[in-house]
Amino acid sequence: MRPNRPVVLDSFRKPAFLKRMRDAKPNKEKSPKKPAAAERPAGVRRPDAARIPGASVHGSLASEIGLRIVRGDYPPGTILPNEAKWSETFSVSRSAVREAIKMLMAKSLLASRPKIGSWVEPKERWNLLDRDVLAWYATSPDREVFLKTVQEFRHIIEPEATAFAAMRRTGEQMAEISQACREMGAATSLQERTRADTRFHLAILRASGNDLLVPLGVLIESAFDHLFAYTTRAVDDLNHAQKLHEAIEKNIRLQRPDAARAAVRKLLANTDHVIKSR
Amino acid sequence: MRPNRPVVLDSFRKPAFLKRMRDAKPNKEKSPKKPAAAERPAGVRRPDAARIPGASVHGSLASEIGLRIVRGDYPPGTILPNEAKWSETFSVSRSAVREAIKMLMAKSLLASRPKIGSWVEPKERWNLLDRDVLAWYATSPDREVFLKTVQEFRHIIEPEATAFAAMRRTGEQMAEISQACREMGAATSLQERTRADTRFHLAILRASGNDLLVPLGVLIESAFDHLFAYTTRAVDDLNHAQKLHEAIEKNIRLQRPDAARAAVRKLLANTDHVIKSR
DNA sequence: GAACGCAATATTGTCTGACAATACACGTCA
DNA sequence: TGACGTGTATTGTCAGACAATATTGCGTTC
User: Fold this and answer.
1) Residue B155: closest CA among chain A residues belongs to which residue?
2) Alpha-carbon distance B57 to B15, whole Å?
3) Using 50, 70 and 90 to split pLDDT, how confident is the model at B230?
4) What's the gap between Cα B53 and its chain centre?
């Protein structure tokens, strides 16, 4: 009764022969992690896995599995343990596992087929610019390299974005930028300052008038998180940086694209220097 | 017996008061879509919703809902119909709905809380650089604007990425680039040519040595999809473009960053021109 | 002995039904 | 009028079952 199966034009990406690592535990040995949990008292649930209290089960699961993948426990091409296995490992229902896996599939970390299982997609498919993936990615290799990569990316993006902002910002967008800049100067704690700093750069991205630049804000947030956590800054450093920010604000306000671009380049060079002398 | 609930430090993002559109149908009226489906004969399932044969139910659902959101049927802040409603609307189980919603949550299109429901996140949170979101986004506004935005983005990214590639490409990466370039020249159909073209640009991104540039390949793919679909190109156009590509390939091969960057700028200018005279 | 076809099988996909956790909404009471 | 407790709607989680599917290995045939 079903109509003829239409021919799929696009050539199917066959999973080919994927490495079998089905029951292989992740590289690190975690044997003593589940001590005498067998026959745990009834009523006590979920003895394993970091259960963050405020978070949902599937959310935590997705983080756990996602982190493992990005960290390299399951290299691309590897077939993951099946859903039942995860379910057992973490003492959660299969539904929760499936929802977690669906989230990772949405980020292109995984793909799956019936009878095959779920496998790790090649790294170039990963959506590294996703907020979560980026966070996982940021924790795994040495932060040094990560920060360098992000910073390099900022060099590519931000000068041009700022130039566009100088050309196209609306009054409202300008107000956001100016306010963030002012709040940076008025901040009394480094944390407060960093927050304002982040808002400043994000506001510029939004003002650039190119929708596709906005999602790159996660990179800036990530960079600042790490900068905040791993660098301490002297007072005159901060004063100098503040002046650089104000120069950017001014040039956007006066709608001078080239000057704005140059000002951002200066700021980034300054940031580079701070990182290097970390 | 549960330990005291730890204080959540990070200030909670309260959903505040979200617009209530729970039972509001999407803007477009679709009333006569479900004709006399009441009491459908047993065994016949899923009369509603585009059921793409090869795709999974949750996948199709995610596409359908995601498209509606990106298209603007449910503006940011809107609370979506609840899971039971979707389940009924599309005649699928709640599990399928939930998995679809989880996928959209992973792309930051949605967020949800018990008792509240799922609401559309503010647009600046959307992960527009996600392959699916981008595809949905590409269909909704007039393509003109979309293509312009993507093209502008390419102007920001590709020259710098190519310069980096010229500095850091490995031999293997160079081989990929060269091969794609050759295949472009040898292509016998426009489709084949476009595929090789895409591969060429993606290979350059990979060769840039910056992991964060790689996911931007989806933009290039998207741009080429649309260029392929909406422009026809004359033969000497193609010859000219081929020479521009070969210039890029050569400069990467000879490791001349500045020349490579300039060559890419030329190619992009040419593409701009093709688009304008579309 | 090799090639082909077919069935067994393992895994994801989907459905159903139930209960828990939660936070808004309302009515009650001081 | 305001504070407080209760009702209730919605997502979150669980459990168990069956369907769909593609690989794997076996058997059959040439």
Assistant:
1) A160
2) 30
3) confident
4) 22
